[in-house]
Amino acid sequence: MINIISNLAVPLMIVSIVAFGLIKRDNVYDSFVQGAKLGLHSTVQISAPLVGLMVAISMFRASGALEILSRVLSPLTNLLQMPSEVLPLALLRPVSGSGSIAIVNDIFKNYGPDSIPGKIASVMMGSTETTFYTVAVYFGAVGIKKVRHTLKAALIADFTGMVLAVLVVNMLLAPQ
Amino acid sequence: MLNFIWGGMVIISFIVAALNGRIDALTASALEGAASGIETCIGLLGTMCLWTGLAKIAENSGLNQIFAKLLRPFTKLLFPRLDKNSAALKAIVLNMVANLLGMGNAATPLGICAMRELDKENKHRGTASYEMCMFAVLNTASIQLIPSTVISLRQMYGSQNPSEIVFPIWICSSLAVIMGVTAAKFFEKYGRNRL
Which of B45, B116, B193 is closest, CB to CB, to A43? Predict the structure, then answer.
């Protein structure tokens, strides 16, 4: 059932957007091409940060520093029943978007996207956001210094997403 | 912040590698990391264009307006003091739709525009109003319908079923949003930083 919903989501979304455009007599192909150009631009934009971050993460793992970090923080990960492999993602996710893409990449490369850490990383990545960046950009734009409880509430949301990612993957996507 | 994280990671890696006698592995890993950064971008390029293309169709055909109407009950609950015809609420709703459709590029300018409008009605200069806090919390939670980046990364690494994480992501992100919104409401009423 869950699989059916998950697998239908993407094709259904594509078909309904295109069908709606046709019904509204929009030139769907032109619109698509026009929009796709934006995607090109934004991917090129993240390429340089991604190279930098992948280098750092790759070095961090190869040097053995990642193992040490995981071991130091193992009481915390054990408490949350979080595999230590996804811990770096949980730490970096609120800070950097391209950094978290880099870590998800690293996890997929080392454990595979269908491993338990790979699935948890996928769900974690999809259900949380780069909190600090968003808050900085939005409040910075209007010159607000006192953000009051924004960060606290936002981090509670992130924490919820991360803990749930572990729970939900273990409940729904763990191999039977 | 990333300045120190990134710099720190590189320096720490060097020190730890030296202590572990893994300096030679460090060279390979740095080069490999750089290559895989670009490989990832190329892998993501197609999917990214697919979604921004579809999002543009949704925008041009007016599908966004329909989404906006569907969001009305939620915005009423979250921003009870905003007038439904106000420029602020319109920008907020469009920002939410852009986020739902995964249009990160469009969402940020709309969000900043919404913040400016909210700031006009803000009675305390330099301090975030209730609406501003709530809106920022909404944007720090992920409310994307199709997590396209994750799906295409999974595909790149040969997942048997790249999209099986969609439904679990919906569960986790909606509960996370509910938690964040509830926390924002709670702190507004009982927190230390009340206005």
Answer: B45
